[in-house]
């Protein structure tokens, strides 16, 4: 049986394709939607793009009493392992910055995450365009042993698998999970339930030839700066009842790695 791991997430660029004046008003919509899904479904899990900036932005715009209540609710989900935050403060360009920025970004992200209930010890780097040689060494220095990437590899996909060891010149290694079909191959799966089975089957068949285990694939439901955490639990339950696309489980980067 094929095991289909589904990670729900949203990549968030505060200033890239759009300016901050366009993205900042969307942050409350995203977080409130994520919290709504976490309240509704005990099996719901969500990744906040490996950064704490989004939550900082959200909480800073609430009245103090409301911010405190929301922070406590967020911390509960973080401690339960259903809302994954950190390890970074923000998603930086690793090629345009230097080691001081990489390390301070991780230091601040770890501090923020610990205050909220715990750090996601995964290098969630799904939309970075390339990396310096030292990246695995820096991650290892913070106790991070795995990383997820979809860009910047510079190798034809026929020559790789979905997992390999990423090594710095000093010998530091992390397990690298390579997203061959991007970080949105199950985008809005819950919105179109009538298409879900065909979509999951198609993506599974496309990824299986590259599976390091031969029986496990990773799908990601999310995109970029879209304040719409997917209501996907009913679709996953129906897929598992049908049993025609393997076993589908809503997961987290730590669980998959």
Computed CA radius of gyration, to the nearest angstrom:
18 Å
Number of strands: 9
The sequence of SSEs as H and E is EHHEHHEHEHEEEHEHEH
In whole angstroms, the N-to-C terminal distance is 19 Å
CATH fold label? 7-stranded beta/alpha barrel
The gross shape turns out to be globular
- Uncertain ranges: none
CATH architecture: Alpha-Beta Barrel
Total domain units: 1
CATH class: Alpha Beta
Strand percent estimate:
15-25%
Topology:
Blueprint (H helix, E strand, L loop, with lengths): L2 E6 L11 H4 L3 H14 L5 E2 L5 H8 L3 H16 L3 E2 L14 H17 L7 E3 L9 H7 L4 E4 L13 E5 L5 E6 L14 H15 L8 E6 L11 H10 L4 E5 L1 H4 L1
Parallel strand pairs: 1-8, 1-9, 2-3, 4-5, 5-7
Antiparallel strand pairs: 6-7
Structure description:
- The chain is α/β, with parallel strands linked by helices and 257 residues long.
- The protein has a single domain (3-256), classed as Alpha-Beta Barrel (7-stranded beta/alpha barrel).
- Helix content is 37%, strand content 15%.
- The chain has 9 helices and 9 strands.
- It has helices at residues 20-23, 27-40, 53-60, 64-79, 99-115, 135-141, 193-207, 233-242, 253-256, and strands spanning 3-8, 46-47, 83-84, 123-125, 146-149, 163-167, 173-178, 216-221, 247-251.
- It has a 4-stranded mixed sheet with strand order 4-5-7-6. Strands 8-1-9 form a 3-stranded parallel sheet. A two-stranded parallel sheet has the order 2-3.
- Strand 4, helix 6 (135-141) and strand 5 (146-149) form a beta-alpha-beta unit.
- It is globular.
- The two termini are 19 Å apart.
């Amino acid at each position: 049986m094929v095991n289909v791991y589904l990670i729900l997430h949203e990549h968030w660029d505060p200033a890239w394709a759009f300016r901050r004046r366009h993205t900042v008003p969307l942050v409350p919509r995203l977080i409130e939607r994520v919290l709504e899904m976490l309240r509704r479904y005990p099996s719901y899990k969500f990744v906040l793009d490996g950064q704490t900036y989004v939550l900082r932005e959200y909480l800073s715009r609430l009245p103090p009493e409301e911010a405190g209540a929301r922070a406590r609710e967020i911390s509960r989900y973080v401690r339960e392992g259903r809302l994954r935050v950190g390890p970074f403060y923000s998603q930086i360009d690793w090629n345009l910055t230097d080691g001081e920025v990489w390390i301070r970004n991780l230091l601040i992200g770890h501090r923020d995450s610990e205050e909220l209930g715990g750090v996601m010890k995964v290098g969630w780097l799904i939309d970075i365009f390339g990396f310096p040689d030292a990246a695995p060494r820096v991650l290892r220095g913070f106790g991070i042993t795995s990383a997820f990437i979809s860009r910047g590899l510079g190798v034809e996909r026929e020559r790789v698998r979905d997992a390999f060891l990423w090594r710095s010149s000093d010998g530091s290694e992390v397990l690298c999970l390579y997203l061959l079909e991007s970080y949105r191959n199950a985008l809005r799966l819950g919105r179109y339930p009538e298409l879900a089975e065909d979509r999951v089957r198609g993506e599974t068949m496309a990824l299986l030839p590259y599976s390091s285990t031969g029986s496990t694939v990773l799908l990601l439901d999310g995109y970029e700066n879209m304040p719409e955490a997917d209501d996907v639990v009913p679709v996953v339950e129906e897929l598992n009842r049908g049993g025609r696309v393997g076993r589908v489980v809503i997961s987290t980067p730590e669980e998959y790695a």
